[in-house]
């Protein structure tokens, strides 16, 4: 019983730490919709297949709806789960869990068509050479959105595999104005 308690403590500590520092993310498709803090916009999940199809519920799209006018635009397609959060009233941060082995992070402007996509292939080209083996040689690599402040998009990269058997964790920043990425090892 004592061994169980010793093993449970780190798990609880990590769970509390993640909860305290994580942005409030809403999971789609379960949520179905998420309003901006000021109510001007709403993100909605839309299934791409008819209910009679055997693939119903697998393919989804996130749509941004302007509530006053009803104008809408498609943000992205996704398979599986997308974690979505508003960063102020004007930006959305999204993590798409593409499979059990990878995810990618996106930023969308509510009032503009511009977007940012950060995934493993993009990061391989953007991070310093000494970090690239963690992205190339591990078969589980996750890029997860955290928040957007001013012109800085904060995200986490973590994974494990052949190169990092014990795993790796980075805290990263993407400067929207410069398109540059910087990452530091998470402690």
């Amino acid at each position: 019983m004592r061994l169980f308690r010793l093993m449970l403590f780190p798990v609880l500590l990590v769970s509390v730490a993640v909860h305290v520092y994580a942005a409030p993310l809403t999971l789609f498709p379960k949520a179905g919709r998420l309003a901006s803090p000021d109510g001007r916009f709403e993100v909605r999940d839309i299934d791409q297949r008819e209910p009679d199809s055997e693939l119903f519920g697998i393919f989804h799209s996130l749509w941004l709806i302007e509530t006053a006018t009803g104008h809408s635009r498609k943000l992205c397609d996704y398979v599986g789960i997308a974690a979505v959060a508003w960063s102020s009233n004007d930006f959305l941060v999204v993590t798409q869990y593409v499979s059990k082995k990878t995810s990618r992070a996106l930023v969308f402007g509510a009032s503009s068509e511009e977007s940012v996509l950060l995934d493993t292939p993009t990061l391989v080209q953007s991070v310093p050479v000494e970090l690239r083996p963690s992205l190339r040689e591990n078969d589980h690599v996750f890029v997860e959105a955290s928040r957007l402040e001013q012109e800085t998009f904060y995200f986490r990269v973590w994974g494990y595999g052949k190169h990092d058997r014990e795993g790796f964790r980075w805290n990263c920043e993407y400067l929207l104005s410069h398109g540059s990425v910087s990452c530091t090892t998470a402690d």
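The chain has one domain: 24-185. Residues 1-23 have pLDDT under 50 and may be disordered.
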